[in-house]
Amino acid sequence: xxxxxxxxxxxxxxxxxxxxxxxxxxxxxxxxxxxxxxxxxxxxxxxxxxxxxxxxxxxxxxxxxxxxxxxxxxxxxxxxxxxxxxxxxxxxxxxxxxxxxxxxxxxxxxxxxxxxxxxxxxxxxxxxxxxxxxxxxxxxxxxxxxxxxxxxxxxxxxxxxxxxxxxxxxxxxxxxxxxxxxxxxxxxxxxxxxxxxxxxxxxxxxxxxxxxxxxxxxxxxxxxxxxxxxxxxxxxxxxxxxxxxxxxxxxxxxxxxxxxxxxxxxxxxxxxxxxxxxxxxxxxxxxxxxxxxxxxxxxxxxxxxxxxxxxxxxxxxxxxxxxxxxxxxxxxxxxxxxxxxxxxxxxxxxxxxxxxxxxxxxxxxxxxxxxxxxxxxxxxxxxxxxxxxxxxxxxxxxxxxxxxxxxxxxxxxxxxxxxxxxxxxxxxxxxxxxxxxxxxxxxxxxxxxxxxxxxxxxxxxxxxxxxxxxxxxxxxxxxxxxxxxxxxxxxxxxxxxx
Length: 498
Fold this sequence. Notes:
498 residues, alpha/beta, Alkaline Phosphatase, subunit A, eight-stranded mixed β-sheet, four-stranded antiparallel β-sheet, 24% helix
């Protein structure tokens, strides 16, 4: 290439792969993602290495699987003892700007290789710690405690944003991204990571976007026969603490799906504004655009909610790339790939090496049309709670230590993942093959903690408390927890905020 391309990395939070109209969703409206698909490459089998926010982002910024970077879930620290994606691109001459949610553990406002950041985190401990909160308060909306939507007991109740569209967190990420493009150092290529908190719940689109999809027209969730056979302890736990295990309302589930899609469409529109800014600067065709998400969302499928699942609805994400030289032509590629492949892809476009960084991924440009067979892997948590995945494009094998259970999904005959074939004797050879594949991979990597020789280490079963209220929690941002100091309305009930 004659010069290094700019890189625009769009990352959403909790966006399923099936939220792109051009990729087969007949209901949703996503003209910007559709354009990227038409002018670029849609890797339809993109997966997260770890289906939860912090560990997925650790894989993005290190280019490593969880067993190599040591981050397995939200409660684990992201490593700071190795080059980040931003470090590597800065070393290659890029001006690196981060906008929006990064979910960096340890120091929420840390740079991790960025030259500068505009911070927006949904669980900020104080207004001073968050650029977006300061902006909202400066606009006179300091009375809105739930700027991302009301969490707590309302976490999965579809709701309208308490902010106008122009002040919505999605709009702010686009605005700050555009401001960076206007003021950047034009003598250098840029790496702009525009990171959106939505469609992560609460599903709170601004008006009038909340009416883009009407509930009565929305499809119901996927609920196959014997669907609980596909559950793990994560599903039981999430359903409980997200207040979704005491009866479901199909009408509300339809509205929920519509509001979730509305959040996606508003992001689509907002990214379109960033692309328009690139076109105005005549930089669009010199910019590699990559669009992905950290993980998916069960959204009522299998009567489950949240993430922490290696079923497609929880682990499969959009993987869209556009660049006239490296990713062009409206191509659909079905090679398995994942978030760990982003660093090699960006470095490949930048014609830059990885230095001493040890990367687990590959440059996605090299997969296009090659028809390669490839197995990708995943992990969330460890020990008794550990869950592991191997996927070769046809068969997906999952092992959950806390359930003492194997799962095999055969995408050749069951792409919708409606039944677990692991205990079907006619699949015995496939189960053995995929189990040996995954255990052999971990052994070869020197990661033997979950293993007992050539088998899985055994742990006690994980069960939810018998009480219907066991494990219920409230998740509110620290700065937004109200205190009722008025006589007669004081805080005389224990604060259950987690």
